[in-house]
């Protein structure tokens, strides 16, 4: 069969090539790939900046935002042939740490977790893949190819859970949320904010195009100013850019008693404005919480599946702005101006 593979940490090594059929030891459920979403992590791996091949191998099958159709459910999964499934990305570390021991591998403490398509386990960008029944999540069949949005939705679901968990520390009635960044994560976060009945604001750099329209379609307010220039103090900020200046301004801007949830992973940048002790003083005097959130466990996968199933299909469909064939994977990895979520489509539904 064919797969998109890469030699991690070596730029220019990605290719669409023949690989052996998936090893039955990798799981009793055999799945035919339908589509795999592409994200910044895939780009980093292909650029040689990130990623680990499986032990004893030099190449890694790419892809972690999966959607597939069950070919053989195996003896124990409870799935049926033809069911749509998405594969959970992370696996617990082998020790395991206390978090992994209770199934919260998203909170892994020792960093020895593995991840399909990223860290030491082959991913989902192959014509067929196998998965352990307990890591195969059934996707609502009415979602169709939009089930490929489940993985990004799990990341957002966990972020929202973090915000709500922090809120339980005291009496808390949030009215509004600011989402910074109108990429797939930001837009899905905004969508869940609307589902929660909050006044939703989304901030990004563009001034027109599909991102702006998508924000307005769900009744949220779009801003293309900087965070510091907003004329309100958000109760919640979900930060999805990873840009230093946006993060710094968000921490200063969040309202009294408010929470900033960081989901974007950036690097460098100049610390613009306030010195760290001044920022801390503001957080102390206003009871602010800044919480980082990454990955997702099975609970988040389940809840994200429910949130997606409730969402408007037409709106979700507009998040998938481009579909490419597997042999054109390099084109899928190139960022184009109006891209939101690009997917590589392996087979039709
Ligand atoms: Zn762990």
Structural class: alpha/beta
**What is the subunit arrangement here?**
single chain
Structural shape? globular
Largest sheet: 7 strands, mixed
Q: Give the topology string: H per helix, E per strand.
A: EEEHEEEEHEEEEHEHEHEEHEHEHHEHE
Helix count equals 10
| Rg, Cα atoms, Å | 20 Å
Number of strands: 19
List keywords for this structure.
349 residues, seven-stranded mixed beta sheet, 10 helices, 19 strands, binds zinc ion
What does this structure look like?
The chain has 349 residues and is α/β, with parallel strands linked by helices. Helices cover 27% and strands 23% of the residues. The protein has helices at residues 40-46, 98-101, 150-167, 184-195, 210-217, 244-253, 276-285, 298-310, 313-319, 329-333; strands spanning 2-6, 15-18, 29-38, 60-61, 65-72, 84-87, 90-91, 114-116, 120-121, 128-131, 136-138, 176-180, 199-203, 221-223, 236-239, 259-262, 289-292, 320-324, 341-345. The strands form four sheets. Strands 3, 5, 6, 10, 11, 18 and 19 form a seven-stranded mixed beta sheet that branches. Strands 14-13-12-15-16-17 form a six-stranded parallel beta sheet, sandwiched between helices. Helix 3 crosses helix 8 (298-310). It is globular, with a radius of gyration of 20 Å. The mean pLDDT is 96. Bound molecules: zinc ion. Zinc ion binds next to helix 2.
């Amino acid at each position: 069969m064919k797969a998109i593979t890469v030699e991690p940490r070596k730029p220019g090594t990605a290719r669409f090539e023949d690989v052996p059929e998936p090893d039955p030891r990798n799981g009793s459920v055999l799945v035919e790939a339908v589509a795999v979403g592409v994200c910044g992590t895939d780009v980093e791996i292909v650029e040689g900046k990130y990623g680990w091949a499986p032990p004893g191998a030099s190449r890694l099958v790419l892809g972690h935002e999966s959607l597939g159709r069950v070919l053989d459910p195996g003896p124990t999964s409870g799935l049926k042939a033809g069911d749509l499934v998405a594969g959970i990305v992370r696996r617990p570390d082998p020790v395991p740490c206390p978090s992994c021991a209770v199934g919260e591998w998203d909170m892994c403490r020792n960093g020895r977790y593995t991840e399909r398509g990223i860290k030491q386990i082959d991913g989902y960008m192959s014509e067929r893949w196998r998965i352990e029944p307990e890591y195969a999540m059934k996707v609502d069949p009415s979602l169709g190819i939009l089930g490929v949005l489940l993985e990004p939705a799990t990341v957002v679901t966990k972020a929202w859970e973090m915000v709500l968990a922090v809120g339980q520390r005291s009496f808390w009635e949030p009215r509004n949320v600011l989402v910074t960044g109108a990429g797939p994560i930001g837009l899905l976060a905004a969508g869940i904010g609307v589902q929660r009945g909050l006044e939703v604001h989304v901030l990004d750099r563009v001034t027109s195009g599909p991102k702006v329209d998508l924000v307005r379609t769900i009744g949220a307010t779009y801003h293309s100013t900087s965070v510091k220039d907003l004329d309100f103090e958000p109760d919640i900020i979900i930060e999805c850019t990873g840009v230093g200046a946006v993060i710094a301004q968000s921490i200063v801007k969040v309202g009294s008693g408010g929470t900033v949830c960081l989901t974007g992973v950036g690097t460098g940048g100049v610390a613009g404005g306030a010195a760290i002790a001044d920022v801390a003083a503001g957080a102390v005097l206003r009871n602010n919480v800044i919480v980082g959130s990454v990955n997702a466990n099975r609970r988040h996968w389940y809840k994200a599946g429910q949130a997606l199933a409730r969402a408007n299909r037409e709106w979700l469909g507009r998040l998938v702005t481009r579909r490419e064939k597997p042999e054109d994977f390099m084109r899928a990895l190139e960022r184009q101006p109006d891209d939101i979520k690009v997917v590589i489509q392996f087979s039709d539904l």
